[in-house]
Amino acid sequence: MHKKLAVISIVAVLGISLIYFIYGQFFNSDAPNTQELGDADSVDGQVKDELESFVTLKMIMPGDMSARMGDFLENELNDRLKKDLNMKLELTYIPWSNYSQKLELALSTGEDYDLFWYGAPFVSYYYTKGYIQPLDELLEQHGEDLVKHIPEGNFKQYEIDGKLWAIPSQAFTSAGKFSSVMVRQDLLEKVGMSEINTIADLEQFFKSMQAIDPSYYGYLETDRGHEMLWRELTDRNYSSLDERMLFIVDEDAGEMLSYVETELYKQVAQLRESWVKQGIIDINLVGNPAAKFDQENAGKLLFRVGAVSRAMENLQTARNADPNARLREYYLAKDKPKFITTPGNEAFMITAASENPERAMMFMNWILHSKENYNLIIYGVEGKDYELEDGKIKQLTNDQLMYEWMWRNKDYFTAPAGLEDDIIDDMLKNDENSRISKLFGFHFNEESVKHEVAQVMAVYKEKFEPISFGLASYEEYYDDALAALKKAGFDIVFAEVQRQFQQFQLQH
Fold first, then answer.
1. What is the CB neighbour count within 10 angstroms for residue 377?
2. Is 145 buried (19+), middle (13-18) or exposed (0-12) by CB count in 10 A?
3. Which CATH architecture has domain 181-245+258-341+418-434?
4. Which residues are in the DUF3502 domain (predicted)?
5. Where does the pLDDT of residue 294 fall: very low under 50, low under 70, confident under 90, or very high at 90 and above?
């Protein structure tokens, strides 16, 4: 109020107070009123109070910390974070091969972590378990730049029971994610092929490369990639509820189905059996995720499930093994529509046990506050870790810093040097011929059937995974596996999924 009185006094001295009071609203229609100024001062004061105390923010990340990431974290990054947010970032890395299990252990025992990442399907699971906290007030108070650079619809995917439970850190194209196939384009051309359009093309690619060098491995994922095959194996359009591959939605009919009881599941299982026999799926690597990724790191992988931008994300890894490597993603049955089940697959969550939830939100907001911050945490120090070459990022070190794909944002995106323009074009045009999935915004709350879900997943892992991977004969083992699944309570879980999905459809 004192500020406004001072302004009025000055205006009076200048002899135009009358004009100001009569027409002032037209001169500055956006000027805040006294109450708004008071609120702003209150918020600013609150932020200043929160930043007075130095904190250590503890965050869990998947993978392994590179030597440069460790050095960068302890020096340039934390120096900047101390200056801007009066905090130190402490990262705990868990290897990809057991990230899910060890993360679950850390969350279930209430260890004092503040922030962690996982894929979109896990948000509802961690919500049900009580591992995470709602973020609405934190986002409102400390997430101005997150809201500015991430579309509103992206946030809605993580709303459960009217509250926000995760930050959708990636804001980029997302249609058809995990339903494409990424191939070594340079090796494809080496055997006289130019593109992949069919399952038969993939098989021919593998066969031709084996004739040249049998050390090349065909296919990385055995627990994903069903949707990639569905595009050719059926005329219908399906999307999976989550990574567990138990339930799918018929996008044409809007109906939730039991995937493991469909003819489509049988087709996929039998196709994978044939891939095991051909050697495309290596039985020595199926149960060893670390060894499979080692094959990719060694440049021996011919193809794997795509993820819209995976050809860009994995390019450096491929070129570390082979400087001439090129990657590209293809959709089988490319004329079929792609579906957007979520605007992005990345989710950052603040733990229920966090001692610094405000600073966790401030840190995430800081990343998108400016292009300078964004480039620093993802690419490192310009001139030391990267440089700009014709408007593209040229990395000066092979060491991984923060995963670019976790925070890829349309407002700040810069393509890496050496990435062909057709790959960039593929990514930016990916959402063409796309539709919003019937699953968009749906979250299955497992609470009422959590015991049955646990039993069903235990049986699925024991009985169905070998069939899904192609290791066990569908004809020989399926009936026994399905009977065991039913006995574990599968029908109860399925009925609850259907009930919740039907209720969701009525509300949308």
1. 21
2. middle
3. 3-Layer(aba) Sandwich (3.40)
4. 439-504
5. confident
